[in-house]
Amino acid sequence: xxxxxxxxxxxxxxxxxxxxxxxxTALLTVTALRLLPPGxxxxxxxxxxxxxxxxxxxxxxxxxxxxxxxxxxTPSASEAxxxxxxxx
Length: 88
Prior knowledge:
By secondary structure, this protein is mostly helical. The chain has 3 helices and no strands. The longest helix has about 30 residues, at about 5-35. The chain is elongated. The two termini are about 35 Å apart. The mean pLDDT is about 80.
């Protein structure tokens, strides 16, 4: 059973990621659409569609921790306290 604390924490992280990533994606999309000439409607449509998909998928991936980023080689605080034989 999922505890309410972890569920609430996940919802807060998702909300923060949606806010931060969604805002930056919207600003970049507006900037890109202003740079594209108005005579290219298909390209403008594809840019808006790609931005919508990115704004939909990236915050969820960031919340789940599935985004590509550098992995830390240092143990977490809980691993260091547990005295795991796999820590340095």
